[in-house]
Every structure is written in structure tokens, then in C-alpha cells.
Amino acid sequence: QVQLVESGGGLVQPGGSLRLSCAASGFTFSRYGMSWYRQAPGKKRELVAFIASAGSNTNNTDFVKGRFTISRDNSKNTVYLQMNSLKPEDTAIYYCYANILGYWGQGTQVTVSS
Questions:
Q1: Euclidean distance between the first and final Cα of the chain, in Å?
Q2: Residue 53 half-sphere exposure, CB side, CA atoms within 13 Å?
């Protein structure tokens, strides 16, 4: 069965960095675009970044441009989200999503606070 397992979240001070990972299994990972979403308390889940199947095309939403980078390693069936210059408003649960297939991971908590 399809599984998406996120890791790498935690507590970080403003201005700090984290690298999230999402390990995928149960499908041909290299054929599908992947996305990261996030959901802050009391807010709707929102798209953070997308990467195409071959990794050649990425798209970040405006509020993370220049700070977050999505990447993937198809040999490891893993998608990453490198987050730099973190702000308190980046605090949320971050979810990995397999596009078209419509599967979600369980999420990983990111808290940015001093």
C-alpha cells in the first residue's frame, strides 16, 4: 500500500533551518509529482511547494520563495523540503502529498519560536 512518512520537524528559533524528508513506498515514485503542504492551527491546509516527477520543474508559493527549496531523490524514493530563514508564521504541520494519486503523509510538526 502507499505510504508517505515525513520526518525532520521540530522546534527551531527564528532565522534557523530545518530539512524535512518524506519517504515514499508502495508506488512508482519517479512517475509522480510531489508536493509539500502545511496547515497552521485554525487555518486551511495550503500548498508550499511542488516538484515534477523528474525534478526538473519546481514551484514554490510566494511566501516561501527564496527561503524554501523542494528537491527529490528518485533513487531513494524521497522528497525533501529545505527550509531556511524560518519565521514564527511558518509554524505548522507539514504534509507530504503524492500528486494525482492523492495520498497524504501523517505530517510533521514544525515550530518556530524563541
A1: 40
A2: 9
Nearest CA-CA partner of 36 in 21, 50, 25, 20:
50
Please spell the DSSP secondary structure of 58-80, one letter per residue: EEE-GGGTTTEEEEEETTTTEEE
Helix (H, G, I), strand (E, B) or coil at 104: strand
Q: Rounded distance, CA 60 to CA 31, Å?
A: 20
Distance between CA atoms of residues 114 and 97, nearest Å: 29
pLDDT single digits (tens) 27-86: 999 999 999 999 999 999 999 999 999 887 777 888 888 899 999 999 999 999 999 999
Identity at 16, one-letter amino acid code: G
- Starting at the earlier edge strand, list the strands of the sheet with 3-7: 3-7, 18-25, 78-83, 68-73
pLDDT in tens, 70-92: 999 999 999 999 999 999 999 99
